């Protein structure tokens, strides 16, 4: 009993209703249980939600995101899509959806789920712009699609989340290496500042890669970079960063490091720091920056 099971399966195995209500088991949804020793895991609830539905049902929206391993925030409900209204099995914490027969479905880790691009569109109903771009950049980084294919899919979709997904897809870029890099880029762009280039490689005279910059303005010799904790705890990384900083200083480059507090606690300060750096490099900027970033960065 390491996997979720239905009430009918428990009865057939000789487990009494009183035992199901006892400490040996826990209820995931009404009619679906799991042994108490099974660790809590997001996919356990997804699997439990699917057990309630006919075989053709599949995880969608945030549940599909969890199946695919997408970097999405914690969302409370499980979502299951079916092709016929009579196949819905609503429960508290479980939201069923009826979709067209052409909806693309894939099998991931033994679970049926919306295909990656379809999941992105579905998440347009649930996520804000920046969180959705994080997912889009992840899809491209993990080679589920290209920015172009994602935009094409969103343009063709008539799903309720497609309008918001189309907007987010327009910001998706290739070669983005982390969600925090996406968030920093979106903070800069939504503030009305020029969009930095992603993961530019600086080559030596022999064509070998000297350094790679998360976000940069090569023409201005300006680097804006998210500095995660590993940069301070990994001594090898620390040495590499020190060497790179020395090289940048010696060759007239300016580095603007940004830490997590500059994204989550004081994004306004980060915007001001990047604006100041750009102006110091002669960039032509709008006189008044945009406040469009504010709804997506609650630290403001």
Quickly describe the structure.
By secondary structure, this protein is an alpha+beta fold. The protein contains 13 helices and 12 strands.
Number of helices: 13
- The N- and C-terminal alpha carbons lie at a distance of 48 Å
The coarse overall form would be elongated
What does the radius of gyration come to? Answer: 24 Å
- Count the domains: 2
| pLDDT averaged over residues | 93
Question: What does this entry look like structurally?
Answer:
By secondary structure, the protein is an alpha+beta fold. It folds into two domains: 41-169, no CATH class; 179-296, VSR Endonuclease (Endonuclease, Chain A). It contains 13 helices and twelve strands. It has helices at residues 7-12, 17-20, 42-51, 61-68, 116-123, 129-141, 147-156, 162-169, 179-190, 230-233, 235-250, 261-264, 267-280, and strands spanning 5-6, 25-29, 32-35, 58-59, 78-82, 94-98, 105-108, 111-114, 197-203, 209-217, 222-226, 254-258. Strand 9 and strand 10 form a beta hairpin. Helix 5 (116-123) crosses helix 8, helix 6 crosses helix 9 (179-190) and helix 7 (147-156) runs antiparallel to helix 8. The longest helix has 16 residues, at 235-250. It is elongated, with a radius of gyration of 24 Å. The protein starts with a strand and ends in a 20-residue tail after the last helix.
């Amino acid at each position: 009993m390491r996997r979720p099971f239905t009430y009918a399966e428990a009865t057939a195995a000789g487990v009494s209703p009183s035992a199901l209500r006892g400490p040996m088991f826990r209820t995931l949804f009404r009619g679906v249980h799991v042994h108490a020793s099974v660790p809590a895991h997001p996919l356990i609830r997804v699997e439990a939600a699917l057990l309630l539905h006919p075989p053709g049902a599949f995880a969608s929206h945030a549940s599909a995101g969890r199946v695919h391993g997408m970097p999405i925030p914690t969302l409370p409900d499980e979502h299951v899509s079916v092709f016929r209204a009579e196949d819905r099995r609503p429960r508290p914490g479980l939201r069923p959806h009826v979709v067209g027969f052409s909806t693309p479905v894939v099998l991931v880790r033994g679970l049926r789920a919306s295909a990656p691009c379809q999941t992105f569109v579905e998440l347009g109903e649930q996520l804000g712009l920046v969180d959705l771009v994080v997912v889009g950049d992840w899809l491209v980084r993990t080679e589920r699609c290209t920015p172009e294919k994602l935009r094409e899919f969103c343009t063709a979709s008539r799903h309720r989340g497609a309008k918001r997904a189309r907007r987010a897809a327009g910001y998706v870029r290739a070669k983005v290496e982390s969600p925090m890099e996406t968030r920093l880029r979106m903070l800069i762009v939504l503030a009305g500042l020029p969009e930095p280039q992603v993961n530019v490689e600086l080559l030596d005279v022999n064509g070998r890669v000297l350094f790679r910059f998360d976000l940069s303005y090569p023409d201005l010799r300006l680097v804006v970079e998210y500095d995660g904790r590993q940069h301070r705890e990994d001594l090898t990384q620390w040495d590499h960063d020190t060497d790179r900083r020395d090289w940048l200083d010696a060759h007239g480059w300016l580095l603007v490091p940004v830490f997590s507090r500059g994204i989550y606690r004081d994004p306004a300060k980060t915007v001001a720091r990047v604006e100041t750096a750009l102006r110091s490099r002669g960039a032509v900027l709008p006189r008044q920056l945009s406040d469009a970033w504010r709804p997506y960065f609650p630290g403001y």
